[in-house]
Amino acid sequence: MNKFKIFSAVCLIAFSYCSAQKNAIVAHRGAWKKNNLPENSIASLRHAIDLKLPGSEFDVWRTADDSLVINHDAHYNKLLIEETNYADLIKFKLSNGEKLPTLYEYISEGMRNNKHTLLVCEIKPSEISKERGQKTGVAAVETIKRLKADKNTCYISFDYDILKKIRAIDSKTSLQYLEGNKSPKEVKADKINGVDYHYSVFQKHPEWIQEAKDNKIILNAWTVNDAKDMDWIIAHKFNYITTNEPELLKERKEIKK
């Protein structure tokens, strides 16, 4: 058995629940919208887990003093996260009174009373340099392994080199690419497990849907918030659907049964 076949077998065993899923809901930045919770907050993560959603996505940056924090945008309260120390960031609370969570705190909460929800960790490309983004990815993997959460976590990024760097240090973890500019066969050649593209990419390249299935590449689509778009994805039986509207998606799935 060659190295690629060994890699494929390991990933299929470790992440069979990923590829076995059909139209499984991933809460984008946690389940926040319906209850007006802050995005990427501990509260939005906990709500996604309490809803027993199959996945909850979140975004990781690294501060100037190397703290890994959870926030979607490069800036937090008009401060560039990568050029600001953590102590200065947490002077500003989230809208529900939480402080800006660290990755350690976020993953610790994600492992508590959670038997259903995959932690979908997006490593944000660095605003400073490609190398810095890759180092952030490595640091995130190390933190998640330290918390023994690696089997409950997959990694996604718009930066292909971040994913390749993670693969170089971890042959087993599940990786999904976000940018939408590579075919499923291309990502498979680089040992990336999934394509997690904006739904419009798959509408422009419907042939990629079957290509992904034929090559056992995980299919995920973001950010699917409109009922019509949800119905289109559901009909094509993706593995995951990432949405800001998990409650609506649950309803659409019930209707389409």
Automatic annotation (TrEMBL):
Domain of life: Bacteria
Signal peptide: 1-20
Record-linked InterPro entries: GP_PDE_dom, PLC-like_Pdiesterase_TIM-brl
Domain GP-PDE: 23-253
Pfam families: GDPD
Keywords, comma-separated and alphabetical: Signal
Protein name as catalogued: Glycerophosphodiester phosphodiesterase
Provenance organism: Flavobacterium humidisoli
